[in-house]
Write a structure and sequence with these properties.
The structure holds two protein chains of two kinds.
Chain A (H helix, E strand, L loop, with lengths): L3 E10 L2 E11 L4 E5 L6 H9 L6 E6 L2 E2 L4 H5 L2 E4 L11 H10 L5 H14 L15 H12 L6 E5 L7 H16 L3 E6 L2 H7 L2 E6 L2 E7 H9 L2 E7 L3 H11 L4 E4 L4 E6 L5 H10 L4 E7 L3 H9 L3 H12 L1
Parallel strand pairs in A: 3-8, 3-9, 6-7, 7-8
Antiparallel strand pairs in A: 1-2, 1-4, 4-5, 9-10, 11-13, 11-14, 12-13
Helix pairs in contact in A: 3-4, 3-5
Chain B lengths: L2 H16 L3 H21 L6 H32 L3 H5 L5 H28 L9 H24 L4 H18 L14 H4 L3 H14 L6 H27 L2
The chains are: A alpha/beta, B mainly alpha.
């Protein structure tokens, strides 16, 4: 049993099933990524794990504690960073951290020491006495994460930690998450930035319509995808016009045309290009560029979930506004 | 874990952050103070002694508006910014959390309750008040009004919404709880409503302490107020669990 062990977890709202009997384990010290589109059940799952939502069925054990029966005990070893930077606008950064520490019973001297330590670590030392409302988005996110770990939790739940912030702050946050892992903290992370998950997660689960459709290490998830060979061709003509004819002539390869002059050809076998190029040449179509594509986790995600990544990003960014 | 650390820090934060928020200033301070001054300034024509008779009503009204306004601010501001979730996911019991959240409003309500007394002290003689009963009734009125405000605030999303919902209760209570109009002068069909309102018992106790004209037995009022307090306290906890822990 891992530090988090979830079995047949289910949440229903009337006729609607938000989470449909999911099971997973998270090992001590790993970063576990939870990926899925809006409405897939990510936030409902995280809310059930942290005690903001009551499961309809199933069990949750956190560090051996039955968190459905004794959520307050489980909450003492967990840190939570919501998808919004939900600290107190009226208070400055330092006071916000001290207040959050007090909620975990930390004494004054201890919480003041820890708050100073975290402000330094998160590069917010000079902003410590500024009101939270005056912080930039990136600073707000960092301080919210600092507040989540003020009491040195064994497990940290991070909901969309890099959404809506600048590139540099996102990079710093990824680095902070990896530092936390090095210190032994277990991290449960939800994100729609698949490349973020690929970079920092030890294991990832894809959730769609309340069900985990695939899970494993990045290597495991990529295993089948990497067996496929993909070549991107840039033509001098509209790719859609020739797609059907090409597919008929080369039935062993799969051809997908994008809008414009680009098409992708894929096959489980290595692709011999010269017959293809000769055929196109005969048809009077020139190939400007042929590039071998390495499959990414995004490709796996799109294949497994059927959801376009761009659509996923737009949904999320729209939701944040 | 020392729950007192959490309790004390939630209370301190609420006092520092919310006592001087505009919605609290307008409904929790300016409204009861201006009503008090209007009544006190207008009354001398009827004789200075009648000022004393106004005090229970003015104090009850100040408590009602002070506590419910404060709660509307502390709960809805935090709910809107989702900082209230921090309290729900902290390893503190719901009882500690509710006690901490209501304490700021109770202290505020009790402080505002003394403003009519302070003004009246300049205009009339205040000797002969049973301070023990007066303070207990002020405290219990503050507790029950705060919990009533809590119940309303939990169901509201915005501060203005909470203040509006509160007014649906507060203004009828001004007239139904015997604050300015004795219950025996109310139409018979309205009197049962009066006896369902905790403020009725608090103001009656205050009338007994200040004017020695209490209508009900002081022990009965005390028991009813404590009963209302306990009932509302558990209702608030139940309501939070129901509405916010889905």
């Amino acid at each position: 049993m891992g530090i988090v062990s979830v079995r047949n977890l289910k949440k229903e709202y009337g006729d609607f099933t938000a989470v449909d009997g999911i099971s997973f384990d998270i090992e001590q010290g790993e970063i576990f990524g939870f990926l899925g589109p809006n409405g897939a059940g990510k936030t409902t799952t995280i809310n059930m794990l942290i005690g903001l939502c009551r499961p309809t069925a199933g069990t949750i054990f956190i560090d051996g504690i039955d968190s459905i029966k004794d959520i307050k005990k489980a909450q003492s070893i967990m840190g939570v960073v919501a998808d919004e930077s939900n600290l107190y606008d009226e208070m400055d950064g330092y006071d916000n951290l001290c207040f959050c520490a007090s909620l975990y019973g930390m004494r004054k001297a201890e919480r003041e020491k820890r708050a100073k330590e975290l402000l330094e670590w998160f590069g917010l030392k000079n902003a410590g006495r500024r009101p939270f409302r005056a912080y930039s988005k990136g600073m707000r996110r960092k301080l919210t994460i600092a507040a989540g770990i003020i009491h040195k939790p064994k497990i940290l739940f991070l909901d969309e930690p890099t959404t809506g912030i600048d590139v540099e702050s996102a990079r710093q946050i990824r680095s902070l998450i990896l530092d936390l892992k090095r210190q032994g903290t277990t991290v449960f992370l939800t994100t729609h930035y698949i490349e973020d998950a690929q970079r920092i997660c030890d294991r990832i689960a894809f959730i769609v319509n309340g069900k985990i459709v695939k899970s494993g290490t990045v290597e495991e998830l990529m295993e089948n995808a990497e067996k496929e060979h993909i070549i991107k061709l840039t033509l001098n003509d509209n790719a859609n016009g020739i797609k059907a004819e090409l597919q008929r002539h080369f039935p062993t390869i799969r051809i997908e045309a994008e809008e414009g002059n680009t098409c992708f050809i894929s096959s489980p076998e290595r692709i011999a290009l010269s017959p293809l190029l000769q055929y196109l040449d005969k048809k009077g179509i020139s190939v400007f560029e042929a590039k071998e594509m390495r499959p990414t986790l995004e490709d796996v995600f799109v294949k497994v979930t059927g959801i376009e990544v761009n659509k996923l990003h737009k949904e999320k960014e729209g939701g944040k506004k | 874990m020392n729950s007192w650390i959490a309790f004390w820090n939630i209370l301190k934060k609420d006092i520092r952050n919310y006592y001087l928020k505009p919605p609290n200033i307008s409904w929790g301070i300016i409204f009861p103070l201006s009503w008090t001054l209007m009544q006190l300034i207008g009354t001398p024509q009827a004789g200075l002694d009648s000022i004393r008779g106004l005090l229970p009503g003015l104090m009850g009204m100040s408590i009602l508006f002070g506590t419910t306004s404060m709660l509307a601010v502390t709960i809805t501001f935090e709910r809107r910014g989702r900082s209230f979730e921090r309290l729900l996911i902290a390893p503190i019991s719901m009882t500690t959390m509710v006690l901490a959240k209501i304490s700021g409003a109770i202290i505020f309500g009790v402080s505002i309750a003394f403003s009519p007394l302070l003004f009246a002290a300049f205009l009339t003689e205040l000797s002969g008040i049973n301070w023990g009963v007066a303070i207990i009734s002020i405290l219990l009125m503050a507790v029950t009004s705060t919990l009533l405000g809590f119940a309303i605030a939990v169901s509201s999303k915005e501060v203005f919404e909470a203040q509006t919902y509160s007014n649906f209760f507060r203004f009828p209570m001004l007239f139904l709880s015997g604050l300015f109009l004795p219950i025996e002068k109310l139409p018979v069909f309205l009197r049962p409503v009066s006896y369902c309102l905790p403020l009725t018992y608090g103001v009656d106790m205050l009338n007994g302490a200040i004017m020695h004209t209490g209508y009900m037995n002081v022990w009965l009022s005390l028991t009813v107020l404590i009963g209302f307090g306990v009932l509302l306290f558990y209702f608030c906890q139940w309501n939070i669990k129901r509405k916010w822990i889905l």
